[in-house]
Specification:
about 500 residues, alpha+beta, 5-stranded antiparallel beta sheet, 5-stranded mixed beta sheet, about 55% helix
């Protein structure tokens, strides 16, 4: 409390006590006027309003002083012997005691009522402050606008500097009021500690006291969204202990506003992604169907030219090969559209991987006519339970990927082995291999630069991933160990491997 506030409080208390004495004096004058005319039988009742009024208006101290003054005045002016403080009758003693008791009881009751009224007013003011704070936050939409509004309100309500920071490991200032303040290394450490632990940190707390700011967590039900910092230019604590409850409520409103802004941003992003996926699926389906008809005509015309013995056989063969490749690309487009629309229907059956690989190589014979393909499949390889058609698509795309990204003299190796109950079918090439970001090779429309993964749109590997997940398998990519080239594996978990006794039957 400042010196001016102390002087004002002392003056107010003196006025209260003086007012209590004056009210008793006025009551005494009224009694002195009444006594000669109607006697002193009810004189003591005149003092009760003065005692009650002093206690109700100014509290227990002035009320008690009023009770003592009333008792003394009654004893001095109206009890025998008059003009002395001696009392010869028991009734006079009882009257004085009753006046004192009335003063005490009334003072306590009045003090309790005033305290309740003060608390009610404080609660009403706090609720109004919180409601106004929340209303101003509602007018802001983005996180930065919400943080700026919150800082301005916190500065106005607590008469201190305010900021909102977010982000780990390095806190970033979302808003600041007034502008121009900066964070010291100690402040940054305090903000980071609050963002990580959710506990207050900084000046006036038990953690990182050298900081100029004190930070409080802005938390939702399951996460810490940001930290609110408060500071004063004179270095004093920014808020008193009795203001912590209000600050906590305000920060709860700030957390709700930030959650609302993030949810709205996520909703817009999801809507945009959903619309983009819808348009992409429609484009894939439309392009695939529109191109398939003329492509079928090209393949038929090339076959007819070959049947008639065209003079330029290599050119006809090139047309057939490129048309077949384009047909596979279109099939990939349609297959991807089927995956994303959930239209893939599984037909699970027991499949021999040797037969599956042979069928895939047969369909790829024209593309692999000049390519050396090494097949290394274990003889005792068990059957796997899968969808034969989807597995065929996976093998076609993996083999085509290896063929396109292997040099003219390079070869392809197809191997399968049983490891710890699961079957691993691997297709390896002899190209430069995959770069560090090889995990992205299985994303839709991804081409990896700086490696042999050039050419095409990257859709074939995405088809492999989508179909492998549909049949319960997993596809992984990496570089070959001990030699140059990339390696992609289809891994069938133990649950898809057919037991030997079933296989034998």
């Amino acid at each position: 409390m400042t010196e001016a506030q102390l002087r004002a409080s002392t003056a107010s208390r003196i006025q209260a006590y003086a007012g209590a004495v004056i009210m008793v004096a006025v009551s005494t004058l009224i009694d002195l006027w009444i006594a000669p005319k109607w006697g002193t039988a009810a004189i003591d009742m005149v003092y009760l309003p003065a005692v009650l009024a002093a206690a109700a208006l100014w509290g227990i101290g002035p009320g008690f002083v009023a009770g003592i003054a009333a008792a003394l005045a009654y004893n001095f002016f109206f009890t025998e012997p008059v003009h002395t403080f001696r009392m010869n009758r028991v009734a006079d003693v009882v009257t004085v005691v009753v006046l004192l008791i009335v003063a005490l009881v009334t003072s306590k009751l009045a003090s309790a009522i005033r305290e309740q009224a003060r608390l009610a007013a404080a609660h009403a003011a706090r609720n109004a402050t919180i409601a106004g704070f929340a209303g101003r936050l509602l007018s802001s939409s983005s996180e930065s606008d919400i943080a700026e509004t919150a800082c301005n309100e916190l500065q106005r309500l607590f008469d201190c500097n305010a900021m909102v920071v977010s982000g780990l490991p390095e806190p970033a200032i979302l808003a600041l009021a007034p502008p121009g303040n900066r964070l010291t290394p100690s402040d940054i450490a305090a903000a980071a500690l609050t963002l990580e632990s959710g506990e207050p940190a900084g000046r006036g707390t038990s953690r990182i006291q050298p900081a100029e700011w004190v930070f409080h967590a802005v938390r939702s039900s399951d996460a810490i969204l940001a930290a609110a910092g408060l500071a004063r230019d004179d270095g004093r604590a920014p808020i008193d202990d009795n203001q912590l409850a209000l600050l906590t409520n305000l920060l709860d409103q700030l957390a709700l506003a930030l959650e609302r802004a993030r949810a709205e941003a996520d909703r817009r992003e999801v809507g945009s992604l959903r619309e983009r996926d819808r348009l992409r699926s429609a484009l894939l389906s439309s392009v695939g169907h529109d191109l398939r008809t003329p492509l079928t005509g090209i393949i038929g015309a090339a076959a007819e030219l070959r049947r008639r013995g065209a003079n330029d056989a290599p050119l006809v063969a090139a047309i057939e090969g490129e048309a077949a490749k384009l047909e596979r690309y279109i099939s990939n487009l349609l297959d991807m559209a089927r995956i994303e629309s959930g239209a893939v229907k599984l037909k699970m059956e027991c499949v021999d991987l040797v037969d599956a690989v042979s069928a895939a190589l047969k369909d790829m014979r024209s593309a692999l006519s000049s390519r050396e393909v090494l097949i290394d499949l274990a003889r005792d390889l068990p059957l796997v339970r899968t969808d034969a058609q989807l597995l065929h698509h996976c093998l076609i795309n993996l083999i085509d990927n290896a063929d396109r990204h292997t040099g003219e003299t390079g070869g392809i190796r197809i191997a399968a082995v049983e490891v710890e109950g699961e079957i691993r079918l691997t297709i390896e090439d002899e190209g430069p291999g995959l770069p560090v970001e090889r995990e992205r090779a299985l994303d839709v429309f991804t081409r990896l630069e700086g490696s042999d993964r050039k050419g095409g749109a990257g859709l074939g590997l995405a088809i492999v991933k989508g179909f492998a997940e549909a049949i319960g398998a997993k596809v992984t990519g990496g570089n070959r160990k001990g030699s140059q080239g990339a390696s992609f594996s289809l891994r069938f978990p133990k649950a898809l491997v057919v037991p030997e006794r079933v296989n034998a039957g």
